[in-house]
Amino acid sequence: MTVADALRRAEQRLRAAGVSQPALDAETLLRHALGCDRAAVIARRGDTLSAAEEKGFLALVEQRASRRPLQHLTGTQAFWRHDFVVSPAVLVPRPETELLVEAALRAMRGLTAPVVVDAGTGSGCIALSLAAERPDAALHATDVSPAALEVARDNARRLGLDGRVAWHEGDLLAPVAHLRGAVHLVVSNPPYVHPADLPGLAPEVRDHEPRPALLAPDPPYGIYERLARQSRDLLRPGGHLLVEVGAGMAEQVAQKLDAAGLPPTETRRDLAGIPRVVASRRP
Ligand SMILES: C[S@@+](CC[C@H](N)C(=O)[O-])C[C@H]1O[C@@H](n2cnc3c(N)ncnc32)[C@H](O)[C@@H]1O
Fold it and tell me: pLDDT-derived band of residue 217, with 50, 70 and 90 as boundaries?
């Protein structure tokens, strides 16, 4: 089978399985199977795959057709300026979360050696992106999942950012309570999917991503209320809280932050026009 035939066959298989970007995924899996870049795939289009290459590639395609996330097969996801290692222990970083990084960098402008906390760090994609952009910042990150923190530590090592983020296991901001009054910025992409919405999610997300990374604990918006109350204690006057929210949640979340004493300052929309980041500030 030639490279071109393999790509065609994979694309058909993935399309039939309901995968949303079958051609792109087929090519990504082929590059992963062959260990080569896009230019090499194009250059090799007419070449015949070895038996081992063909077997390895078609096995990956079958796994993807069973709706395993592409990133669980390749092991990485690009986010901001780096490739992050991912596993079933962490949420696959999403492009919309880059908005949080952008907003955080803006909030940090003009500050020297800012103290920053990322609550619910998962793969560490937010904390490590900020650490790379701001070498002067003191970063802390928390997560309830020890397995997620292992992935985050691994990412720190791979990105040459070992020692730049202090990793803490525990609930939201509780592990960094000692920073009371010293924090310039709290940033968080907490779990916000309502359990009733779970069945409607893509199988990749519903069946393969960690539930504690997805599902909002009861009551709805409760995690934002707790985060806001804890941030109110942790932040210095003028300090910022930036949170990612699900579609349709921005207004309610802004009210919760306000009620906790952190008046909202801004809502930012993602590329689809969905309000995605709510920013607030301690007076
Ligand atoms: C939506 S994921 C975000 C992961 C990463 N920050 C990102 O943006 O890709 C939420 C993360 O919060 C963690 N988490 C859930 N509840 C938590 C809590 N009460 N305290 C700390 N972390 C929590 C989950 O384990 C998960 O890693």
Answer: confident
